[in-house]
């Protein structure tokens, strides 16, 4: 065994084979679904070293009734991808630093969950005490050169709460500091980004500052505009979805609409999270 196979991805256990030198096993961590996760941590390894380890490990896991096997290959071990594929694995997902491959041992379609199916975005309705809405014109994308004034929008980052993303995007695009108010509405669309679906949340924020400093790299312009002028734009009148959003913003400004507030809470595993609920019709404080 070469020195490259002595790190934590390799077990010292042996699988005896008659007339053949005993082979080590990959170090797999069992999950809660009768599967095994292998995280390769070697800085380098050649296919001729890796394939015997993989085959011996697959034999052992099959004997033990394991179902799904996950192999996480760092980018430094990309030379092993072809070998893993030839052993019956398929791509599951990729990140900047690794590729995840999977195999369902029993055969058939299996129950391995698919990769993330949705991208999450936000649009921010920010209105000052004068009844003016914070709007932007974009340099890029479908609105480039159209002259349409729209709500600041953006994509929620991995590990970021919707309410935090709305605050961040407004700050990045316009320089305006704001606090989260409510989720007013959301829509789902499909095949919007490399076949993935898209969830878009319209959020209301309350401005804490008012001096605009637009993001020059993405925006053509940013300004406070009267709510009525925003609603009356021809684009909003001609496109039903945008018309609905504009009218929801108007109704909220008139105090006739209840959205979903962000209530801090925790999951069963004690992870901190938010529950978004209609705080007007349900007072969570009554249950504290």
UniProtKB/TrEMBL annotation:
A GO molecular function held by the record: ADP-ribose diphosphatase activity
Species of origin: Turnera subulata
CDD domains in alphabetical order: NUDIX_ASFGF2_Nudt6 (cd04670)
A Pfam family annotated for this UniProt entry: Nudix_hydro
Keywords assigned: Hydrolase, Metal-binding
Residues of the Nudix hydrolase domain: 117-247
UniProt-listed InterPro entries: NUDIX_hydrolase-like_dom_sf (IPR015797), Nudix_hydrolase6-like (IPR003293), NUDIX_hydrolase_CS (IPR020084), NUDIX_hydrolase_dom (IPR000086), Pre-Nudix (IPR040618)
UniProt cross-references to SUPFAM superfamilies, sorted A to Z: Nudix (SSF55811)
PANTHER family (alphabetical): NUDIX HYDROLASE 5-RELATED, NUDIX HYDROLASE RELATED
Protein name listed in UniProt: Nudix hydrolase domain-containing protein
């Amino acid at each position: 065994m070469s020195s490259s196979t002595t790190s934590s991805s390799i077990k010292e256990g042996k699988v005896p084979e008659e007339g053949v030198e005993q082979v080590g096993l990959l170090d797999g961590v069992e999950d809660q679904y009768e599967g095994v996760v292998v995280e390769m941590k070697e800085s380098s390894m050649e296919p001729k070293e890796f394939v015997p380890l993989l085959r011996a490990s697959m034999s052992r896991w099959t004997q033990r009734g394991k179902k799904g096997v996950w192999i996480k290959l760092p980018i430094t071990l990309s030379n092993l991808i072809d070998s893993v594929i030839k052993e019956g694995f398929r791509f599951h997902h990729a990140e900047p630093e690794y590729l995840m491959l999977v195999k369902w041992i029993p055969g058939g379609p299996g129950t391995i969950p698919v990769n993330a199916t949705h991208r999450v975005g936000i649009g921010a309705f920010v209105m000052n005490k004068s009844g003016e809405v914070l709007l932007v014109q974009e340099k890029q994308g479908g609105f480039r050169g159209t002259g349409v004034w729209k709500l600041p929008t953006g994509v929620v980052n991995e590990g970021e709460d919707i309410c935090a993303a709305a605050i961040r995007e407004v700050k990045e695009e316009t320089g305006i500091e704001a606090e989260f108010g409510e989720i007013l509405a959301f829509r789902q669309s499909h095949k919007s980004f490399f076949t993935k679906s898209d969830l878009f949340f319209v959020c209301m924020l309350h401005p804490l500052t008012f001096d605009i400093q637009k993001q020059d790299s993405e925006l053509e312009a940013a300004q406070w505009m009267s709510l009525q002028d925003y609603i009356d734009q021809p684009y909003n009148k001609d496109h039903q979805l945008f018309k609905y959003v504009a009218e929801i913003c108007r109704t909220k400004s008139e105090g006739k609409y209840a959205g979903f507030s962000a209530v801090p809470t925790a999951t069963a595993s004690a992870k901190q999270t938010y529950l978004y609920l209609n705080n007007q019709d349900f007072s969570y404080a009554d249950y504290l």
